[in-house]
Each structure stands twice: as C-alpha cells, then as structure tokens.
Automatic annotation (TrEMBL):
Single GO molecular function: glutathione transferase activity
PROSITE patterns the UniProt entry points to: GST_CTER, GST_NTER
Protein name: Glutathione S-transferase
An individual GO BP term: glutathione metabolic process
Matches recorded under InterPro entries: Glutathione-S-Trfase_C-like, Glutathione-S-Trfase_C_sf, Glutathione_S-Trfase, Glutathione_S-Trfase_N, GST_C, Thioredoxin-like_sf
Annotated ranges, domain GST N-terminal: 1-83
Source organism phylogeny: Eukaryota, Metazoa, Ecdysozoa, Arthropoda, Hexapoda
Stretches assigned to the GST C-terminal domain: 90-218
C-alpha cells in the first residue's frame, strides 16, 4: 500500500513533499489534516506527531516521520530509482543540499512562519520587524544564488532542496515580494517552467487568498 501523508495542500512543506514524490513517481495516500480546525492538536494526531505539524509520513508498519526535509530524504532513499535528488556518494553536493535545507528550515521558513502563524491563528498583523527579518532571509538566499550561478539552488541538477525553497519563497511572497531580488526572481521563474511545479499552484493559490483576505480584513478594522 502507498505511504500515508497527513497533509493540507495550503502548507508549503506539504507541497514540497508532493513535488518530490511526483518526481520520484511515488504514490502517496493523502490524509487531510485541517489546521484551522485544529486537527493537528487532537490526541490521535499528537500521539503520532508530538510536533503537531504537517506533513507527517506514515508507513503501513507503523513507521512515522515528521518534517518535510526529512521526509523527502527518506523518500529518495527508500523509493527512488536513483539518488540524484539527494546523492549518497557525492559528499560535497550532499553537504550543499543539506546547507540549503537547513537554511530553509532555520531561516527562510521559520521567519515566514513567525508571520503567518500569528496571522492565521490569532489574527495578528505582522510587525515591521518581522517583515524586515523575512526580507533579510530572502536577501541571503538571493546572495547564495548570485554566488553559485547555478540553474538549481544547490547545483546544476534538481535536488530536494529546490522543492523546499520554491514552496517557501512563493508562499511568503505574500509578505515580501521575491521580485525585489533579481537572482531569486530568475530562479523562481526557471522553476515555474518545470513540470513538477504544477503541484505548487493550487495550494499556493489557496494560501495566498486566505492570507490576502485576512490581512485586508485586519487592516480595515
């Protein structure tokens, strides 16, 4: 049976895993988790994932794995016909991929989350300081892309790092336009031409609509 993915498509990390699975040709059974209804805080879900986050991968034998970055690495190792998305034997390329994944989880995504989580769950508009921090994160990635001068974020071939970066940047563009950063803009435009990018569109549209409507509502109060 296909591995289960507890998920909601409005979530950028969920879409990263879905794009990775598409490229690997791995079928996933999607189990909906409605964050706004607090499904992720119910006892049944917390027993499986104390982090109460999505996505969560669940295998038939009871194996559970949280965090999109870890899940994508696992999918490559467990189901990939090859390891090109996350090479085992090229230690330098793998280190570069890991660097980008850590940059996403510890800087890019978390700074966007510090804006979106209070907005969506507490109806708190972002402060100028939080927007400034997110803009700084985008600037860092723009500088990385300028330095590397590669087609993809970690080199000249597609890797799991691209799925994370693409979903994070396009989502948090709602707060800081990536078009302000030339190398980042060019990178996203290249990724939009890839077939796997289609899986980003629906969830991104839902996310942007929800954020846009909420921000307009709060600003007009």
């Amino acid at each position: 049976m296909a591995p289960k993915l507890h998920s909601i498509i409005a979530s950028p990390p969920v879409r990263a895993v879905l794009m990775c699975a598409k490229v690997l040709d791995v079928e996933l059974e999607l189990i909906p988790v409605d964050l706004l209804s607090k499904d992720h805080l119910k006892d049944e879900y917390l027993k499986k994932n104390p982090q109460h986050t999505v996505p969560l991968l669940e295998e038939d034998d009871g194996f559970l794995l949280a965090d999109s970055h870890a899940i994508m690495g696992y999918l490559v190792n467990q189901y990939g016909k090859d390891d090109s998305l996350y090479p085992k034997n090229d230690s330098r390329l793998r280190a570069v991929i890991d660097h980008i994944l850590h940059l996403d989880s510890s800087v890019l995504f978390i700074r966007g989350l510090f804006i979106s989580k209070p907005l969506l769950f507490q109806k708190i508009l972002p402060t100028e300081e939080k927007i400034k921090d997110l803009k700084e994160a985008f600037k860092i990635l723009d500088a990385v892309l300028e330095k590397n001068q590669t087609k993809y974020v970690a080199g000249n071939s597609l890797t799991i790092a691209d799925f994370s970066v693409v979903t994070t940047i396009t989502c948090f563009d709602s707060f800081t336009p990536y078009a302000e950063f030339p190398h980042l803009k060019a990178y996203i435009e290249r990724m939009e031409q890839e077939s796997w990018y289609e899986l980003n569109k629906e969830g991104l549209a839902i996310n942007k609509k929800m954020i846009g409507e909420l921000m307009n509502e709060l600003k007009n109060q």
